[in-house]
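$ ./design --mode recover --in tokens.txt
reading tokens...
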């Protein structure tokens, strides 16, 4: 069985979608082997730069020519050309991992729709993402099988596009094993990065739906009303945004590698993700795997990911968010509480994500 995936999200810094593709590509060959399936897993990238992926697993190969993503998307939003086989050769399955599913001659089309932000909150996304409003319906019209990262998103996609239940399958994301035994960042490391010993952490971007301005407001409220409130550390793309420098009680991490990010989260008092919209919210699951409390927006999708292990607040209410953060900081954080968070996170693995994805490929 020839399986080809779009690995364009692996170019450049890894976002949440990049993590998804990275781990899915790594786990698929083993998942196929466990069920005795002879599968050849390949990836392709759409870029004029022709970048080669240097960190692919040894049993995964890269195929396809240098083709600009923008040109392909313009073709696919208007026509059924070029079919994916013209770019990558014969394949039994093509998985568009990031909203875009190209036309095929005979391959099974699978597309992951991570969220409906492009359709429901168009004012918050880039021009490139707005093209999904045209590209996604074209794929659905060809009968593409849809994957979503949560049941909440699956239900929303079915309703928005009036799709039959079976055409949309929720395949939850996973968490890497390294999060479960991540050593907390040491004081010497924190000092070297100009970070405090006592802090809560936000991991994310400046995307409007991440709701960072509301978090900054809520943190300021808590600092004004509760003496000794931990400082706020911003990591991920937000942690490199110099325009946020100089705010009272707020610190930026700069760029961090994976091990340092895990240590930063593991040493935090809590992780906060106050998004107005999410498809999954991977930092929440990662923080739970590290045993940390989490504070989230009161969104169904984040309740699905965190279960009973999160304190929630409406994303548009800074006072409520401040109260939720205070509650998380005052809540239990003993060995039993940490073990319960980790036990919940252990139910979501990348191996299981690959198994469920393979089920869809072979259905």
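writing sequence...
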């Amino acid at each position: 069985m020839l399986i080809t995936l779009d690995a364009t999200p692996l170019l450049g810094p890894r976002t949440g979608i990049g993590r998804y593709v990275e781990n899915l590509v790594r786990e698929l060959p083993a998942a196929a082997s466990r069920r005795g399936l002879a599968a050849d897993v390949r990836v392709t990238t759409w870029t004029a730069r022709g970048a080669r992926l240097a960190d692919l697993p040894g049993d995964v190969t890269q195929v396809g020519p240098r083709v600009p993503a923008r040109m392909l998307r313009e073709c696919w939003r208007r026509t059924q050309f070029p079919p994916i086989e013209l770019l990558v050769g014969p394949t039994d399955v093509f998985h568009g991992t990031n909203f875009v599913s190209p036309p095929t001659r005979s391959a099974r089309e699978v597309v992951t729709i991570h969220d409906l932000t492009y359709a429901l909150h168009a004012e918050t996304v880039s021009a490139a993402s707005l093209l999904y409003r045209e590209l996604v319906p074209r794929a659905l019209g060809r009968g593409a099988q849809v994957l979503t990262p949560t049941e909440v998103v699956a239900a929303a996609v079915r309703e928005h596009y009036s799709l039959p239940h079976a055409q949309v399958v929720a395949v939850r994301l996973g968490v890497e094993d390294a999060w479960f035994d991540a050593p907390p960042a040491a004081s010497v490391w924190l000092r070297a990065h100009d970070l405090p010993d006592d802090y809560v952490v936000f991991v994310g971007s400046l995307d409007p739906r991440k709701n960072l301005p509301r978090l900054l407001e809520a943190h300021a409220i808590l600092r004004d009303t509760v003496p000794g409130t931990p400082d706020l550390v911003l990591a991920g793309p937000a942690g490199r945004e110099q325009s946020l420098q100089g705010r009272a009680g707020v610190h930026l991490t700069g760029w961090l590698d994976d091990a340092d990010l895990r240590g930063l989260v593991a040493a935090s008092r809590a992780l906060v993700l106050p998004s107005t919209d999410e498809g999954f919210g991977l930092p929440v699951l990662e923080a739970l795997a590290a045993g940390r409390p989490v504070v989230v927006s009161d969104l169904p999708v984040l309740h699905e990911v965190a279960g009973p292990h999160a304190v929630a607040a409406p994303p548009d209410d800074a006072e409520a968010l401040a109260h939720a953060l205070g509650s998380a900081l005052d809540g239990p954080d003993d060995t039993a509480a940490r073990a319960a968070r980790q036990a919940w996170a252990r139910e979501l693995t990348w191996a299981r994500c690959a198994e469920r994805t393979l089920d869809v490929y072979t259905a």
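exit 0
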